[in-house]
């Protein structure tokens, strides 16, 4: 997408980055992040009431044929939001753009295509996301330097997230997103050795057993500030899911507040 067409496709990327896991059945028992002014869970109800169904139906088909698309989309969501807010800037073409920066290596082109196709987990949870964000018309190469790095210790990771107002609990919860998907370390390796295609809390069990893939994962079970939280997550059945998802929603809200 070039910058000039950004406004025309605004509806689509907004839908996308907001719809990955988000076109949702929301369960009343789940915590709901406070709404930021200008956003609404039913933002498109007046203009496109069938929107969530369209996205959900399309994603159901996509995930059935390729269970790697859910982690691909979740990573895109995170990498978009961490750089100047959830504005779809990762989708803008540049020469180079954000997608071409090293922290974005391994971004699944098929997941980017899915975004294009609809302009919405492998049996995983759904959560509701407030809609109405306006797409960015600019991107930030410099901002991609703020993305976390896999070779970092927890000390550095905590600083990286703290700069975006995330605390220790947020970092442990968000890192749980590595419960599925893969990485390119020479060969392709699964992020969660136990259940690589399921969104569950086995990532934390991996860490307890020294089987985390990256230093940024495994060190969470060494650093005294995060170690205890890892143990607690291993004892949860659905708690890890909820914690990651709630934090993701809050991430969007907090970042949108800043821009
Ligand atoms: C400590 C911070 C983090 C670091 C250092 C990190 C780093 C990485 C790296 C290096 C990869 C492999 C990319 C590749 O080689 O293809 C990856 C994959 C992934 N990351 Fe993270 N990440 C972090 C936090 C997060 C967060 C907060 C989320 C989402 C909420 C997330 C979601 C994912 C997903 C779903 C994948 C798999 C993508 C796929 O299968 O295509 N990560 N991450």
TrEMBL record:
Substrate binds at residue 148. It catalyses: 2 a phenolic donor + H2O2 = 2 a phenolic radical donor + 2 H2O. Keywords: Calcium, Disulfide bond, Heme, Iron, Metal-binding, Oxidoreductase, Peroxidase, Signal. Heme b binds at residue 178. Residues 1-31 form the signal peptide. Residues 38-259 form the Plant heme peroxidase family profile domain. Gene3D superfamilies: 1.10.520.10, Peroxidase, domain 2. PANTHER family: PEROXIDASE (PTHR31517:SF81), PTHR31517. This is peroxidase. It comes from Trifolium subterraneum.
